[in-house]
Amino acid sequence: MEFLSNLTFIERGVVAGVVIGIIAPIVGAFLLVRRISVVTESISHITLTGISAGVFLGTIGPLFQNINPMYMGVVFALIGALITERLRDMYRHFQELAVPIILSTGIGMSAIFISLARTGYNEWYTYLFGSIVSVTVSDVQFIIFTAIFVLFIIFLFYKEFILSSFDQEYAQVSGISMKFINFIFALLIALVISMSMKVVGILLVGALVVIPVAASVQISKSFKQLILFSIIFAQVSILLGLYFSYQFNIATGGMIVLTSIIVLLVVLLLKSIKR
Hints:
Blueprint: H1 9-34, H2 39-60, H3 69-90, H4 98-117, H5 121-129, H6 137-156, H7 158-166, H8 168-173, H9 178-200, H10 205-216, H11 223-248, H12 252-274
Helix pairs in contact: 1-6, 1-7, 1-9, 1-10, 1-11, 2-3, 2-4, 2-9, 3-9, 5-9, 6-9, 10-11, 10-12, 11-12
């Protein structure tokens, strides 16, 4: 991927955004059907814990200075996703408890690591709210390779994902291991959050996964249409968000989320007018 080295920082941000705008809504569509969209919020906060831990380790000695905080975030995101699934299994009749448990744990641990690291404001601002100018060549490579892997997994287990999402009892009767499928799906959630945080920001990545799908479900008549319209709405939100973010020097993630909210409101308005 030598062509990535020739891209300007704006072009790198656009490439990263477009790729994320394809993957995030696909996973978000499955989350919607499974009724666990809010899980992204808890995992994103655990991801912040991993990043803050990585930054803190980098300040305590030369041995840890080469650790990329983003990769620590990936590890913590996966751990958080797996723990969330485990908690949902333990609290079978109160599965919503898993989200506040993981979310509050992530916020608490992040606050501790951030206070211990004592690094500059700008570094945390980028991680929390995203920045188009901070996307490096290695970030784009990570996003592209992660996206390819996520698409491959979805293609490989598409039938299992569909059955387990719409009817878990039938899926189990059909011989599908729900524990294995939930593990694979938890991995996908962790990867999507990890690949999106540099552009959208950790605190706002859940919105990119959920809001385009929320707009799409208003006009979709099938699951495939749900995915298609979700991707279209996500691309519109990301491209416009990146443009206005750069033009007005506004937080990238915030502008993308605001644009996606506007898209959602337009869809709701048009649907109400048709009625």
